[in-house]
Specification:
Number of domains: 2
Structural class: alpha/beta
Number of strands: 5
Strand order of the largest sheet: 2-1-3-4-5
Strand content: 5-15%
CATH topology of the largest domain: Rossmann fold
Order of helices and strands: EHHHEHEHHEHHHHHEH
CATH architecture of the largest domain: 3-Layer(aba) Sandwich
Largest sheet: 5 strands, mixed
Radius of gyration: 31 Å
Distance between the termini: 103 Å
Helix content: 40-55%
Length: 337
């Protein structure tokens, strides 16, 4: 088997993957991992080839990481999904040699039916949950996303993820507790993984030391009314996720009903992004056409330059020849031997 680390973006999945790396589990070749940046200085512990594949799968179904696609029930069993199942398995086999792997990508939270087929349902899952207001504020700071849209995206990820985990061994933890009480939370996760045969008895201090208090940044300002008092459907889902903390040898959970506004808001973002990207594509096409025209004009200019140079050379040669002839005619030509 192996371990999947899942959860919404900006929820601490990278920190948790780092913990499991410190406990000796295989997160993949360092050369193949996504590098850290301003948004995550310590690194993402995310296999770039897997993240790229997941983004392509989302795009094939009309979405991307920040716009969950509209997926019909049983979508992963359809013919169109089979090539992605095969590609996911191939990508996984090229990344991990052993069974005790750690595969982390928040996008997989939206694609679990497909990945469960690719991995033959042989994986345990550790889910990280973060306060929705903190996630929304972090997305606002990093991506300029409206707070209410960030809350809707947080809900979409977690609702889809809960449905995709049914029947699997799952451990749920809260990011705030992981940062505030790393030793206790890491030890609790390690006990679950040991019970499932995913981890030998190890000293968990090395993992706990990967967690620092400053990792919990981008907490939301109390002045924002949307984040200070989220809509009821968001608060209900957050409270429900809190009841799931800990080990589930066979996970079953049905999320509370979504708010009437959640899906329309995500759909509105989808339409906006599609129009925006179409406008960008049109602009890029115009730029490409202008570049072609510019290249053609440059070529014409270069051709004219050569023609002018050749004409000037011809005139100079003609003038030189004419001057010699005139000089000879007036007896001032070169003396004969």
């Amino acid at each position: 088997m192996g371990i999947l680390v899942l959860g919404m973006h900006r929820s601490g999945t990278s920190a948790l993957a780092s913990v499991l790396d410190a406990l000796g589990l295989d997160v993949g070749s360092r050369d193949g991992l996504m590098r850290g940046d301003v948004g995550n200085p310590d690194g993402y512990f995310e296999v770039e080839s897997v993240a790229a594949l997941d983004e392509r799968i989302l795009a094939a179904y009309g979405g991307r990481w920040d716009i969950p696609p509209l997926l019909a029930p049983g979508w992963a069993n359809e013919v169109d999904a089979r090539r992605f199942v095969t590609e996911a398995r191939t990508t996984f086999d090229a990344t991990f040699a052993g069974s005790h792997f750690v595969l982390k990508d928040p996008r997989m939270s939206l694609l679990m039916p497909l990945w469960r087929q690719a991995l033959l349902d042989r994986a345990a899952v550790v889910v990280v949950v973060r306060d929705p207001a903190e996630v929304a504020w972090s997305l606002a700071l990093r991506d300029g996303m409206a707070p209410l849209t960030g809350l809707a995206l947080w809900a979409a990820y977690n609702r889809t993820l809960l449905a995709g985990l049914d029947g699997l061994p799952v451990h749920v933890c809260h990011y705030r507790e992981l940062v505030e009480h790393p030793r206790e939370v890491v030890a609790d996760i390690a006990r679950s993984l040991s019970a499932w045969g995913e981890l030998d008895d190890v000293d968990t201090d090395a993992g706990a030391q990967r967690i620092r208090a400053d990792l919990r940044r981008d907490t939301h300002p109390g002045a924002d009314p949307i984040l200070s008092e989220p809509p009821p459907s968001i608060s209900e889902l957050a409270a429900f996720l809190g009841t799931l903390n800990g080990r589930h040898d066979e996970f079953h959970a049905t999320a509370p009903a979504p708010g009437w506004w959640e899906e329309p808001l995500v759909n509105e973002r989808r339409v906006f992004v599609q129009h925006y990207e179409a406008a960008l594509d049109e602009r890029d096409a115009q730029i490409a056409a202008l570049l072609v025209d510019n290249a053609a004009l440059r070529a014409q200019g270069e051709e004219l330059r050569h023609e002018v140079t050749a004409a000037i050379d011809a005139v100079r040669e003609l003038e030189a020849t004419r001057a010699i002839r005139l000089a000879r005619a007036f007896g001032r030509g070169p003396a004969k031997a």
